[in-house]
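User: Can you model how aspartyl-adenosine-5'-monophosphate sits in this protein?
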Amino acid sequence: MLMWNRKYAAEITADNDGEHVSIAGWVHEKRDLGGVFFLIVRDLSGFAQITLHKGVVEKELFERVKKVPRESVVAIEGRVKSEPKAPNGYEIIPERMEVLNEASQILPLDTTGKVGAELDTRLDARFMDLRTERTKHIFIIRSRVLKAIRDFLDDLGFIEINTPKIVSAATEGGTALFPISYFEREAFLNQSPQLYKQILMASGFDRVYEIAPIFRAEEHDTTKHLNEATSVDIEVAFVSDKEVMVTLEELIAFVYSKVGDYPGLSKLNLKLDVPKIPFRRITYDEAIELLSEAGEEIEWGEDLSTSAEHTLGEIIGELYFITDWPCAIKPFYTQPAEKGKREDICNAFDLMHPKVELASGSQRVHSYELLKRKIESKGLSADSFEFYLDAFRFGMPPHAGWGLGVERLLMSMLEIDNIREVVLFPRDRRRLAP
Ligand code: AMO
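Assistant: Here's the modeled complex, given as C-alpha coordinates:
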Protein backbone atom coordinates (compact mmCIF):
# COMPACT_ATOMS: atom_id res chain seq x y z
CA MET A 1 0.00 0.00 0.00
CA LEU A 2 1.05 3.55 -0.57
CA MET A 3 0.16 5.04 2.78
CA TRP A 4 3.23 4.60 4.94
CA ASN A 5 4.16 8.24 4.65
CA ARG A 6 0.71 9.63 3.90
CA LYS A 7 0.41 13.40 4.04
CA TYR A 8 -2.79 15.36 4.56
CA ALA A 9 -3.86 17.63 1.70
CA ALA A 10 -3.58 20.71 3.92
CA GLU A 11 -0.04 19.79 5.02
CA ILE A 12 1.23 20.24 1.46
CA THR A 13 1.83 23.74 0.00
CA ALA A 14 3.40 25.31 -3.09
CA ASP A 15 6.66 25.36 -1.11
CA ASN A 16 6.83 21.58 -1.52
CA ASP A 17 7.18 22.07 -5.30
CA GLY A 18 9.14 19.16 -6.80
CA GLU A 19 8.77 16.90 -3.76
CA HIS A 20 7.50 13.39 -3.90
CA VAL A 21 4.35 12.83 -1.75
CA SER A 22 1.72 10.20 -0.93
CA ILE A 23 -1.85 11.15 -0.13
CA ALA A 24 -4.94 9.06 0.55
CA GLY A 25 -8.62 9.89 0.69
CA TRP A 26 -11.93 9.86 -1.15
CA VAL A 27 -12.56 10.79 -4.80
CA HIS A 28 -14.52 14.00 -4.33
CA GLU A 29 -14.88 15.23 -7.90
CA LYS A 30 -13.68 14.41 -11.39
CA ARG A 31 -13.33 17.01 -14.16
CA ASP A 32 -12.58 15.99 -17.71
CA LEU A 33 -11.36 18.88 -19.89
CA GLY A 34 -10.28 16.67 -22.79
CA GLY A 35 -6.53 17.04 -22.82
CA VAL A 36 -6.33 17.42 -19.06
CA PHE A 37 -8.13 15.55 -16.32
CA PHE A 38 -8.53 16.70 -12.71
CA LEU A 39 -9.22 14.38 -9.81
CA ILE A 40 -10.07 16.11 -6.54
CA VAL A 41 -9.18 13.95 -3.55
CA ARG A 42 -10.68 14.75 -0.16
CA ASP A 43 -9.27 13.86 3.24
CA LEU A 44 -9.97 15.04 6.78
CA SER A 45 -7.92 18.19 6.24
CA GLY A 46 -9.34 19.34 2.90
CA PHE A 47 -8.77 18.82 -0.83
CA ALA A 48 -5.88 18.05 -3.19
CA GLN A 49 -5.98 18.44 -6.97
CA ILE A 50 -4.46 15.60 -8.96
CA THR A 51 -3.72 16.73 -12.52
CA LEU A 52 -3.21 14.34 -15.43
CA HIS A 53 -2.11 15.62 -18.84
CA LYS A 54 -3.11 13.30 -21.66
CA GLY A 55 -0.07 12.02 -23.52
CA VAL A 56 2.26 13.00 -20.65
CA VAL A 57 1.03 10.64 -17.97
CA GLU A 58 1.10 6.88 -18.64
CA LYS A 59 -1.96 5.85 -20.69
CA GLU A 60 -2.91 2.98 -18.33
CA LEU A 61 -2.88 5.32 -15.29
CA PHE A 62 -4.81 7.99 -17.18
CA GLU A 63 -7.57 5.49 -18.07
CA ARG A 64 -7.77 4.09 -14.52
CA VAL A 65 -8.06 7.53 -12.95
CA LYS A 66 -10.78 8.51 -15.39
CA LYS A 67 -12.78 5.41 -14.51
CA VAL A 68 -12.51 5.38 -10.72
CA PRO A 69 -16.03 6.00 -9.31
CA ARG A 70 -16.63 9.05 -7.12
CA GLU A 71 -16.27 8.43 -3.35
CA SER A 72 -13.91 5.48 -3.90
CA VAL A 73 -10.95 5.41 -1.52
CA VAL A 74 -7.64 5.93 -3.28
CA ALA A 75 -3.97 6.31 -2.41
CA ILE A 76 -1.87 8.41 -4.76
CA GLU A 77 1.84 8.95 -5.10
CA GLY A 78 3.24 11.76 -7.21
CA ARG A 79 5.16 15.02 -7.45
CA VAL A 80 3.99 18.35 -6.09
CA LYS A 81 3.82 21.21 -8.56
CA SER A 82 3.06 24.77 -7.59
CA GLU A 83 -0.23 25.84 -9.23
CA PRO A 84 -1.77 29.11 -8.07
CA LYS A 85 -5.17 28.23 -9.56
CA ALA A 86 -5.53 24.94 -7.64
CA PRO A 87 -6.89 24.62 -4.06
CA ASN A 88 -4.03 25.37 -1.58
CA GLY A 89 -1.82 26.59 -4.49
CA TYR A 90 -0.50 23.21 -5.62
CA GLU A 91 -1.35 20.19 -7.73
CA ILE A 92 -0.02 16.65 -7.69
CA ILE A 93 1.26 15.04 -10.89
CA PRO A 94 0.53 11.36 -10.15
CA GLU A 95 2.89 8.46 -10.72
CA ARG A 96 0.87 5.71 -9.03
CA MET A 97 -2.70 5.27 -7.87
CA GLU A 98 -4.13 2.41 -5.88
CA VAL A 99 -7.88 2.01 -5.48
CA LEU A 100 -8.24 0.77 -1.90
CA ASN A 101 -12.01 0.46 -2.03
CA GLU A 102 -14.19 1.13 -5.03
CA ALA A 103 -17.49 2.88 -4.32
CA SER A 104 -20.76 1.74 -5.91
CA GLN A 105 -21.89 3.98 -8.73
CA ILE A 106 -25.16 5.33 -7.35
CA LEU A 107 -24.40 7.38 -4.27
CA PRO A 108 -27.01 7.99 -1.53
CA LEU A 109 -25.83 11.62 -1.21
CA ASP A 110 -23.88 14.27 -3.04
CA THR A 111 -20.86 14.97 -0.84
CA THR A 112 -19.98 18.18 -2.71
CA GLY A 113 -23.11 19.76 -1.24
CA LYS A 114 -24.27 20.95 -4.66
CA VAL A 115 -27.38 18.76 -4.48
CA GLY A 116 -29.07 19.08 -1.09
CA ALA A 117 -30.73 16.15 0.69
CA GLU A 118 -33.52 15.71 3.23
CA LEU A 119 -32.39 15.20 6.83
CA ASP A 120 -33.83 11.65 6.87
CA THR A 121 -31.82 10.70 3.77
CA ARG A 122 -28.71 12.17 5.39
CA LEU A 123 -29.27 10.30 8.64
CA ASP A 124 -29.90 7.02 6.79
CA ALA A 125 -26.50 7.40 5.10
CA ARG A 126 -24.81 9.19 7.99
CA PHE A 127 -21.35 7.77 7.16
CA MET A 128 -21.56 9.61 3.86
CA ASP A 129 -23.24 12.72 5.24
CA LEU A 130 -20.23 13.04 7.55
CA ARG A 131 -18.07 13.41 4.45
CA THR A 132 -19.70 16.77 3.70
CA GLU A 133 -17.86 19.80 5.01
CA ARG A 134 -20.73 21.22 7.06
CA THR A 135 -21.59 17.99 8.87
CA LYS A 136 -17.93 17.17 9.50
CA HIS A 137 -17.36 20.52 11.17
CA ILE A 138 -20.47 20.18 13.37
CA PHE A 139 -18.97 17.04 14.91
CA ILE A 140 -15.48 18.47 15.26
CA ILE A 141 -17.11 21.36 17.11
CA ARG A 142 -19.07 18.89 19.26
CA SER A 143 -15.78 17.28 20.25
CA ARG A 144 -14.28 20.69 21.06
CA VAL A 145 -17.32 21.58 23.18
CA LEU A 146 -16.92 18.41 25.24
CA LYS A 147 -13.21 19.05 25.69
CA ALA A 148 -13.86 22.66 26.72
CA ILE A 149 -16.42 21.50 29.31
CA ARG A 150 -13.97 18.96 30.74
CA ASP A 151 -11.10 21.49 30.79
CA PHE A 152 -13.27 24.07 32.55
CA LEU A 153 -14.58 21.70 35.22
CA ASP A 154 -11.23 19.92 35.74
CA ASP A 155 -9.61 23.31 36.37
CA LEU A 156 -12.19 23.97 39.09
CA GLY A 157 -11.19 20.73 40.83
CA PHE A 158 -14.19 18.66 39.76
CA ILE A 159 -13.90 14.85 39.72
CA GLU A 160 -15.32 13.14 36.63
CA ILE A 161 -17.61 10.23 37.51
CA ASN A 162 -19.50 7.45 35.71
CA THR A 163 -22.78 6.29 37.18
CA PRO A 164 -24.98 3.34 36.11
CA LYS A 165 -27.32 3.65 33.19
CA ILE A 166 -29.29 0.54 34.20
CA VAL A 167 -31.31 1.50 37.25
CA SER A 168 -34.18 0.39 39.41
CA ALA A 169 -36.00 3.66 40.12
CA ALA A 170 -37.22 6.72 38.31
CA THR A 171 -35.30 9.95 38.86
CA GLU A 172 -37.49 12.72 37.58
CA GLY A 173 -40.81 11.10 38.54
CA GLY A 174 -42.47 7.98 37.24
CA THR A 175 -42.98 8.82 33.58
CA ALA A 176 -40.73 8.78 30.55
CA LEU A 177 -38.74 5.66 31.42
CA PHE A 178 -37.64 2.90 29.08
CA PRO A 179 -38.23 -0.44 30.83
CA ILE A 180 -35.69 -3.17 30.13
CA SER A 181 -35.57 -6.78 31.20
CA TYR A 182 -32.82 -7.34 33.76
CA PHE A 183 -32.78 -11.07 34.43
CA GLU A 184 -35.85 -11.75 36.58
CA ARG A 185 -36.25 -8.14 37.71
CA GLU A 186 -37.71 -4.93 36.39
CA ALA A 187 -35.17 -2.27 35.46
CA PHE A 188 -34.99 0.93 33.44
CA LEU A 189 -32.57 2.98 31.37
CA ASN A 190 -31.59 5.96 33.50
CA GLN A 191 -33.26 9.26 32.65
CA SER A 192 -30.67 11.27 34.65
CA PRO A 193 -27.66 10.59 36.93
CA GLN A 194 -29.46 12.74 39.52
CA LEU A 195 -29.76 10.24 42.36
CA TYR A 196 -26.21 8.95 41.99
CA LYS A 197 -24.53 12.34 41.75
CA GLN A 198 -26.40 13.31 44.92
CA ILE A 199 -25.38 10.09 46.71
CA LEU A 200 -21.78 11.01 45.90
CA MET A 201 -22.17 14.24 47.85
CA ALA A 202 -22.25 12.02 50.96
CA SER A 203 -18.87 10.60 49.91
CA GLY A 204 -16.92 13.79 50.47
CA PHE A 205 -16.07 14.17 46.77
CA ASP A 206 -17.47 17.75 46.95
CA ARG A 207 -17.52 18.49 43.19
CA VAL A 208 -18.41 15.88 40.60
CA TYR A 209 -19.41 15.91 36.97
CA GLU A 210 -20.59 13.35 34.46
CA ILE A 211 -21.01 13.59 30.69
CA ALA A 212 -23.18 10.68 29.65
CA PRO A 213 -26.35 9.57 27.86
CA ILE A 214 -29.75 10.12 29.39
CA PHE A 215 -32.76 8.14 28.18
CA ARG A 216 -36.22 9.69 27.95
CA ALA A 217 -39.16 7.66 26.72
CA GLU A 218 -40.97 10.78 25.56
CA GLU A 219 -43.44 10.03 22.79
CA HIS A 220 -43.34 13.45 21.19
CA ASP A 221 -41.59 13.89 17.91
CA THR A 222 -40.14 17.42 17.94
CA THR A 223 -37.03 19.19 16.67
CA LYS A 224 -35.78 19.65 20.26
CA HIS A 225 -36.27 16.22 21.83
CA LEU A 226 -34.26 13.03 21.56
CA ASN A 227 -34.95 9.72 23.26
CA GLU A 228 -31.25 9.36 23.93
CA ALA A 229 -29.49 12.66 24.68
CA THR A 230 -26.17 13.59 26.26
CA SER A 231 -26.21 15.46 29.51
CA VAL A 232 -23.49 17.30 31.40
CA ASP A 233 -24.38 16.91 35.06
CA ILE A 234 -22.65 18.55 37.98
CA GLU A 235 -23.20 18.34 41.73
CA VAL A 236 -21.41 20.49 44.31
CA ALA A 237 -21.41 20.23 48.11
CA PHE A 238 -21.63 23.15 50.59
CA VAL A 239 -23.12 25.57 48.05
CA SER A 240 -26.59 26.73 47.04
CA ASP A 241 -28.31 27.11 43.67
CA LYS A 242 -26.86 30.64 43.38
CA GLU A 243 -23.25 29.39 43.20
CA VAL A 244 -23.89 26.65 40.65
CA MET A 245 -25.73 29.16 38.44
CA VAL A 246 -22.51 31.18 38.31
CA THR A 247 -20.53 28.03 37.39
CA LEU A 248 -23.05 27.35 34.63
CA GLU A 249 -22.93 30.80 33.03
CA GLU A 250 -19.14 30.92 33.24
CA LEU A 251 -18.96 27.48 31.62
CA ILE A 252 -21.25 28.56 28.77
CA ALA A 253 -19.17 31.70 28.09
CA PHE A 254 -15.97 29.58 28.16
CA VAL A 255 -17.40 27.06 25.67
CA TYR A 256 -18.50 29.85 23.31
CA SER A 257 -15.02 31.38 23.43
CA LYS A 258 -13.36 28.01 22.64
CA VAL A 259 -15.71 27.29 19.74
CA GLY A 260 -15.37 30.89 18.51
CA ASP A 261 -11.64 30.24 17.94
CA TYR A 262 -12.30 27.27 15.66
CA PRO A 263 -11.43 28.05 12.00
CA GLY A 264 -13.99 25.51 10.67
CA LEU A 265 -16.77 27.74 12.03
CA SER A 266 -16.74 29.65 8.73
CA LYS A 267 -18.01 26.46 7.01
CA LEU A 268 -21.22 26.94 8.99
CA ASN A 269 -21.36 30.63 8.01
CA LEU A 270 -21.26 31.60 11.64
CA LYS A 271 -19.52 34.12 13.80
CA LEU A 272 -19.95 33.48 17.48
CA ASP A 273 -20.21 36.27 20.00
CA VAL A 274 -19.31 35.20 23.50
CA PRO A 275 -22.39 35.95 25.64
CA LYS A 276 -21.90 38.54 28.37
CA ILE A 277 -22.10 37.27 31.94
CA PRO A 278 -23.86 37.44 34.33
CA PHE A 279 -26.94 36.36 32.37
CA ARG A 280 -30.20 38.06 33.14
CA ARG A 281 -32.22 36.43 35.91
CA ILE A 282 -36.01 36.61 36.07
CA THR A 283 -38.25 34.84 38.54
CA TYR A 284 -41.04 32.50 37.47
CA ASP A 285 -43.54 35.16 38.66
CA GLU A 286 -41.86 37.81 36.49
CA ALA A 287 -41.93 35.38 33.56
CA ILE A 288 -45.68 34.85 33.79
CA GLU A 289 -46.19 38.59 34.15
CA LEU A 290 -44.14 39.27 30.99
CA LEU A 291 -46.17 36.60 29.23
CA SER A 292 -49.44 38.07 30.38
CA GLU A 293 -48.37 41.51 29.07
CA ALA A 294 -47.66 39.78 25.74
CA GLY A 295 -51.19 38.32 25.78
CA GLU A 296 -50.23 34.78 26.86
CA GLU A 297 -51.93 33.77 30.10
CA ILE A 298 -50.23 31.16 32.28
CA GLU A 299 -51.90 30.04 35.48
CA TRP A 300 -49.58 30.20 38.50
CA GLY A 301 -48.11 26.75 39.10
CA GLU A 302 -48.39 25.69 35.45
CA ASP A 303 -45.22 24.76 33.55
CA LEU A 304 -44.18 27.02 30.66
CA SER A 305 -45.32 25.66 27.31
CA THR A 306 -43.08 25.70 24.24
CA SER A 307 -45.04 28.64 22.92
CA ALA A 308 -44.58 30.52 26.22
CA GLU A 309 -40.84 29.82 26.05
CA HIS A 310 -40.74 31.26 22.53
CA THR A 311 -42.63 34.38 23.54
CA LEU A 312 -40.27 34.95 26.47
CA GLY A 313 -37.28 34.29 24.23
CA GLU A 314 -38.49 36.95 21.82
CA ILE A 315 -39.00 39.47 24.62
CA ILE A 316 -35.64 38.81 26.29
CA GLY A 317 -33.55 37.97 23.22
CA GLU A 318 -30.48 36.58 25.01
CA LEU A 319 -29.48 33.78 27.40
CA TYR A 320 -31.34 34.11 30.72
CA PHE A 321 -32.26 32.23 33.87
CA ILE A 322 -35.77 31.64 35.20
CA THR A 323 -35.57 31.21 38.99
CA ASP A 324 -37.91 30.65 41.97
CA TRP A 325 -40.11 27.97 40.43
CA PRO A 326 -43.28 26.63 42.04
CA CYS A 327 -42.31 23.41 43.90
CA ALA A 328 -45.31 21.65 42.37
CA ILE A 329 -43.64 21.53 38.93
CA LYS A 330 -40.12 20.71 40.08
CA PRO A 331 -38.84 17.26 41.14
CA PHE A 332 -38.94 15.98 44.74
CA TYR A 333 -35.23 16.61 45.34
CA THR A 334 -35.63 20.40 44.93
CA GLN A 335 -35.13 22.49 48.07
CA PRO A 336 -38.02 24.80 49.09
CA ALA A 337 -37.16 28.47 49.67
CA GLU A 338 -35.83 29.51 53.09
CA LYS A 339 -38.20 30.09 56.01
CA GLY A 340 -39.98 33.39 55.82
CA LYS A 341 -40.26 33.16 52.05
CA ARG A 342 -43.10 31.46 50.21
CA GLU A 343 -43.08 27.73 50.96
CA ASP A 344 -44.54 26.82 47.60
CA ILE A 345 -41.49 28.25 45.82
CA CYS A 346 -38.33 26.20 45.32
CA ASN A 347 -34.67 27.17 44.85
CA ALA A 348 -34.69 25.93 41.29
CA PHE A 349 -33.64 27.48 37.99
CA ASP A 350 -33.75 26.85 34.26
CA LEU A 351 -31.19 28.27 31.87
CA MET A 352 -32.91 29.42 28.71
CA HIS A 353 -31.65 30.24 25.26
CA PRO A 354 -34.23 32.42 23.45
CA LYS A 355 -35.14 29.36 21.35
CA VAL A 356 -34.79 26.43 23.74
CA GLU A 357 -34.23 25.38 27.37
CA LEU A 358 -30.57 24.48 27.87
CA ALA A 359 -30.28 23.36 31.49
CA SER A 360 -32.08 23.01 34.76
CA GLY A 361 -30.82 22.76 38.28
CA SER A 362 -31.47 23.53 41.91
CA GLN A 363 -30.41 23.51 45.47
CA ARG A 364 -31.25 20.03 46.78
CA VAL A 365 -33.11 18.85 49.82
CA HIS A 366 -30.45 17.39 52.14
CA SER A 367 -32.67 16.60 55.13
CA TYR A 368 -33.66 12.93 55.18
CA GLU A 369 -37.10 13.59 56.70
CA LEU A 370 -38.04 16.31 54.25
CA LEU A 371 -36.78 14.30 51.27
CA LYS A 372 -38.80 11.26 52.30
CA ARG A 373 -41.92 13.40 52.70
CA LYS A 374 -41.37 15.04 49.31
CA ILE A 375 -40.93 11.67 47.56
CA GLU A 376 -44.21 10.48 49.07
CA SER A 377 -46.04 13.72 48.31
CA LYS A 378 -45.22 13.16 44.60
CA GLY A 379 -47.06 9.82 44.85
CA LEU A 380 -43.82 7.79 44.72
CA SER A 381 -42.89 4.99 47.09
CA ALA A 382 -40.07 5.83 49.53
CA ASP A 383 -39.18 2.12 49.62
CA SER A 384 -38.01 2.11 46.03
CA PHE A 385 -35.71 5.04 46.87
CA GLU A 386 -34.13 3.39 49.90
CA PHE A 387 -30.67 3.10 48.30
CA TYR A 388 -30.78 6.86 47.70
CA LEU A 389 -32.39 7.90 50.98
CA ASP A 390 -29.78 5.93 52.95
CA ALA A 391 -27.09 8.38 51.86
CA PHE A 392 -29.06 11.15 53.62
CA ARG A 393 -29.03 9.43 57.02
CA PHE A 394 -25.32 9.37 57.75
CA GLY A 395 -23.94 12.83 57.01
CA MET A 396 -25.17 14.55 53.85
CA PRO A 397 -23.91 18.12 53.28
CA PRO A 398 -26.07 20.79 51.67
CA HIS A 399 -25.56 20.64 47.90
CA ALA A 400 -26.71 21.92 44.53
CA GLY A 401 -26.22 21.07 40.86
CA TRP A 402 -27.55 21.16 37.33
CA GLY A 403 -27.95 19.17 34.12
CA LEU A 404 -27.10 20.73 30.77
CA GLY A 405 -28.16 19.18 27.44
CA VAL A 406 -25.13 18.92 25.15
CA GLU A 407 -27.25 18.78 22.00
CA ARG A 408 -29.38 21.73 23.10
CA LEU A 409 -26.22 23.75 23.72
CA LEU A 410 -24.79 22.84 20.32
CA MET A 411 -27.95 23.46 18.31
CA SER A 412 -28.51 26.85 19.94
CA MET A 413 -24.88 27.92 19.62
CA LEU A 414 -24.62 26.86 15.98
CA GLU A 415 -28.12 28.14 15.05
CA ILE A 416 -29.25 24.67 13.93
CA ASP A 417 -33.01 24.10 13.98
CA ASN A 418 -33.18 20.32 14.29
CA ILE A 419 -31.48 18.62 17.26
CA ARG A 420 -30.87 15.46 15.17
CA GLU A 421 -28.23 17.34 13.17
CA VAL A 422 -25.89 17.46 16.16
CA VAL A 423 -26.09 13.75 17.08
CA LEU A 424 -24.13 11.20 15.05
CA PHE A 425 -26.83 8.52 15.19
CA PRO A 426 -29.98 10.04 16.72
CA ARG A 427 -32.58 8.01 18.56
CA ASP A 428 -36.06 9.41 18.19
CA ARG A 429 -39.65 8.16 18.06
CA ARG A 430 -39.08 6.52 14.68
CA ARG A 431 -35.35 5.98 14.40
CA LEU A 432 -33.46 3.02 15.84
CA ALA A 433 -30.89 2.55 13.04
CA PRO A 434 -28.24 3.27 11.92
P1 AMO B 1 -33.96 18.06 32.99
O1 AMO B 1 -34.95 16.96 32.90
O2 AMO B 1 -34.47 19.46 32.82
O3 AMO B 1 -33.22 18.05 34.39
O4 AMO B 1 -32.79 17.80 31.94
C1 AMO B 1 -31.66 18.61 31.90
C2 AMO B 1 -31.36 19.06 30.49
O5 AMO B 1 -31.17 17.93 29.64
C3 AMO B 1 -31.63 18.23 28.34
N1 AMO B 1 -32.69 17.28 27.97
C4 AMO B 1 -32.92 16.84 26.72
N2 AMO B 1 -32.32 17.10 25.55
C5 AMO B 1 -32.80 16.51 24.45
N3 AMO B 1 -33.85 15.67 24.43
C6 AMO B 1 -34.50 15.37 25.58
N4 AMO B 1 -35.54 14.53 25.57
C7 AMO B 1 -34.04 15.97 26.80
N5 AMO B 1 -34.43 15.92 28.09
C8 AMO B 1 -33.61 16.71 28.77
C9 AMO B 1 -32.18 19.65 28.37
C10 AMO B 1 -32.48 19.84 29.84
O6 AMO B 1 -32.46 21.19 30.21
N6 AMO B 1 -31.87 16.01 37.08
C11 AMO B 1 -32.16 17.26 36.41
C12 AMO B 1 -30.93 18.16 36.33
C13 AMO B 1 -30.48 18.67 37.69
O7 AMO B 1 -31.33 19.24 38.41
O8 AMO B 1 -29.29 18.51 38.01
C14 AMO B 1 -32.67 16.97 35.00
O9 AMO B 1 -32.49 15.90 34.46
O10 AMO B 1 -31.15 20.53 27.94
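A couple of observations from the model: Residues 172, 192, 194, 216, 218, 225-226, 229, 231, 233, 357-362, 401-403, 405, 407-408 surround aspartyl-adenosine-5'-monophosphate (CB under 6 Å). The chain has two domains: 9-101, 127-422.
User: Helpful, thanks.
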